[in-house]
Amino acid sequence: MKLIRVLTVASLIHGVGWSSLASQDISGQRAVVRGLAFDGNSAIDDFTLGRSIATSNSSFFARSPLVRWLGFGEKRRFDETEFRRDVLRLALLYRQSGYLDATVDTIVRRRGQNISIRFLISEGEPVRVTAIDVIGSDSIVARGTLLSRMSIGVGDPFDRFLLKVSADSVTRYMQDHGYPQAAVFTNFDINLLSRTAAAWLDVVPGPRSVIGEITVQGADKVSEANVRRILAVRPGDLFRLQDLYDSQRALYRLNVYNFVDVSASESERRDSIIPIVVQLSEGRFRRARLGVGYGTVDCFRTLTSLTFNNFLGGARSLELAARLSKIGTGSPFNGGLENNVCSGLSDEQAQERLDLNYNVSATLRFPFLFTRNTTALVSVSGERRSEFQAFVREAVGTNLAITHRVAPNLPITFSYGLSYGSTAAEPAIFCEFFQLWRGSDTEIFTTRLVRSTVGLSLVYDRSNSPLNPTRGVAISAEARHASSLIGSDSLVQFSKGVVEIVSYHSLSRRTVFAWRLRLGSIVSPGPSLSGQDIRFIPPEERFYAGGPNSVRGFGQNELGPLVRVVDALTADTTISPTGGNTILLGSAELRLPIPGVSDRLKVGIFVDAGQVFERGSELFEVEGLKITPGIGLRLSTPIGPVRLDVAYNPHDPGPGPLYREVGDDLLLDPQEFTPRVPDGFFERLQFNFAIGQPF
Q: What is the pTM of this model?
């Protein structure tokens, strides 16, 4: 809407001359603008005013008295002719926005070749809308339906930009309901004495139309039949402009086209029959990708993939991918980086959890299954992954997923997964849950087991960016079930559900408030082992929290239940998170610009709260919720924001069970272990480095 204002004013003012500007004697085209400000404006913000004029401020490094002597930063030169026109531009902008009495004056200070400019604005009282209506469409659509799509209403300042936006919205509604030739005209009547305005839209719907012949141009390797199958339009369908856009997006999602255009044919159009032309330009059908990165608990990582589009015809795609992490901390690429560059892993006690993590997979994707809104994929994979201080998982498996788009922003996925593998965790974890003191008793939980799961998930995403959203909401929910009825081993049975809500709110052009709420729970039917019923939930399915993407005041996985083990030889105490069967996380974050610094750098002020619980018979509990505030920096990059967060943890570590090694067995210490309380403010700080927003 701001952009519409700027473009409209620019087009209206283009070519306007200037005869005189009272009392301002400014000469020299080479002067540098060192300051630009607006005073007196409230109806229109500084950003919109600044974008509506030709004169612009120099960058921070070129205008700050402290650093401009270094010569850095972009210098914007002063143009007297454009400056004089800027006064007209601002006055016209206010008139178009309903402020007919607005006046614009200027104060210009010049010191040598440096100029500081201040625009003084007196807005006055606006003309207000007292009546608004839509005519000409009563026989087609309810008047109230069109009025609800208008951006201006009774009592608002008479903003002609918003009236034009309202006309565009009504036009789009008609085009999405069978009237592609609809035209909407704006009309208004202003009473200058009473400062009131009446406005109405005159709708000329044109004929109700249907889709005619569909012509496909440029189909080569992907057959024309498959292109037609992906389209959201068919001959004889009621014309809907949105269907053309949906068809275009669906074709782009195949990743084989450099250019796609789905539009109505102007040359062969008849009154009620609209032919459609699909223009395609095919690109590369083989794509290779290589990426490298770094993470606090991943150390160096890499991703490589090779994609074959239109694999065996039918617009299918085959992707071969390999992901590696913890490069440089363990076998086979041990460089000892956990002690320096990747110091986030320095507290990891088990060498096998520092060894190379990998995931290799082959995924075959089907762009349509039964209907154009249903897709499917089949994958096979092998993996080795470790969770910090918790477990190592090695497995091979296959997965089938069918996704149906109920709406463009609402995909629902049904999945089935089958894997065969083992999970190794610290013996102390099994001691804590099952009272198994001998190491040999825990071997049954670390043998290779079959896991068979079914899942259902949905995602409703109305955020405006996948990398750095500033407004909108995203809701996700997932449910997974494993049991012996579908082929799972008796020790791998559970039902798990997770719901997450994330909301983004733009408080100004550069300020965003975001919040997140995540709730998850898992239950186990309790198989029988050695004559006793146990409730075993595999370590890799349990919930863990703490780290850069959850409660940032705690280290990775260190929020929630912990057990500690004293080494018999060194007397060192190691920590093992046991995870929990219930998780509650909440975060709120204010992302602000830093005055005088590039838009790419922002500061984040946040508060995280959460806990991982080991729920018993009760449904839910919130006792022991941990709250940690913090602050961080965000640097925008093409791959997402790079961030450094510093969180403060005001909570003292709580007492917990302590086990002592006795040969291969563990002995529970009768006294609960009380960790050392952090000494001073700085010991309570937790640093997190990551790529991407935390939510």
A: 0.78
